[in-house]
Amino acid sequence: MVPLPLHSRHVVLGAAFGELKGREVVDRVPGQAEDRALRSGAALIDTSAREVVRLTSPDRVSFLQGMVTQDVEGLAPGSVADAAMLTPKGAMVADARVVKRAEDFLLLTEPGHGATVLGALGRYLISEDAELSDASGELGQLSLVGPEAEALAERVLGLGPPAGAALRQFDAGGGTTGWAMPQGLLLPGVDLLVPVNALGEVFDRLLAGGATPVGMAALEVLRVERGTPRFGLDMDEKTIPLEANLQRAIHYQKGCYIGQEVIARATFRGHVNRHLVGLRFAGSGGPMPAPRTELFVGDRRVGWVTSVVESPRFGRIGLGYAHRDVAQDGTELTLPGGAGGATVAGLPFSEAPESPEPARPGGVAG
């Protein structure tokens, strides 16, 4: 398992650790009001388990333009955008946040998928003057999430006001530059990209400035409530991005890229056969439905579960896929073997009718 660069600091804070695809994560920070910090304060999450692929050299723009769903050629230097890499059949290889800097591109991927992105890009890198490298060991990542996160980041790090999807530079200490960008799970807050040698100083400054250390389990609850899919859990190598509501990662007017014909056909047709939906599960006792648990209407298999959490606000909820003719809010579904039922819910989740007292949020699924 690849340890976090700040492992020793998390030990001092009393963190409980977990693992995602061979990379260490902070699962919980016992004794901290994690959920409260995420919803009403400024939660500090170490997201350095995410991986970083760097693309350099003169042909990097034209090469990447033909590889991803986003119009990276049209992005101004200093911009951030979501993108997906596809197979020729339109299925996902991975998703990534594309960071366009003056001298390179950075592709920020989910834990365990950096090698996949490197391999997929490398297979098509034939005559272009472009170089690929794994920069995960050079750059750490932190997330500040919550309604107070932006103000705290501006005060502690000296950030200027947010400017859309633009990067904001800050002094990470000792003349080292860090970068702030919009929060990647579509939650209030900012994500920080920091050279590893300055990561500890930035982390300490944010804690001293009032941020609350929080683990990934509590953030996972908020992610599911928001309806933001995660590759490796809610998306895989069989997912078409339109099924996962990833329209924000697709530029419909750009030139050719791998998998574009499938996306164009599905867009012209006006639908895909299944959609990512919210799920409210009946009851609160017993084991939670596992990922890949099938969903039925009568004897007909109509979908499957991908994520399940215990939400302090909504009880037992999750994400999953449902066939388009049963993906409407309020549709009743059943689980196999008399394991209970689920109701389709619109995303993001909104206030629900009265439900049983929920348990603590579950651990991070890997």
**Overall strand count:** 19
Cα-to-Cα separation, first versus last residue: 13 Å
**Estimated share of beta-strand residues:** 25-35%
Radius of gyration: 21 Å
Mean pLDDT over the residues: 94
Structure description:
This protein has 366 residues and is α+β, with helices and mostly antiparallel strands. Helices cover 20% and strands 32% of the residues. It has eight helices and 19 strands. The chain starts with 6 loop residues before the first helix and ends in a 21-residue tail after the last strand.
Helix-strand layout with pairing:
Elements: H1 7-12, E1 16-20, E2 23-28, H2 34-40, E3 43-46, E4 51-56, H3 60-65, E5 79-86, E6 92-100, E7 105-109, H4 114-124, E8 131-134, E9 139-145, H5 149-157, E10 168-173, E11 176-182, E12 189-195, H6 196-208, E13 212-213, H7 216-226, H8 260-269, E14 274-281, E15 294-297, E16 300-311, E17 315-323, E18 332-334, E19 341-345
Parallel strand pairs: 3-13
Antiparallel strand pairs: 1-2, 3-9, 4-7, 4-8, 5-6, 6-7, 9-12, 10-11, 11-12, 14-17, 14-19, 15-16, 16-17, 18-19
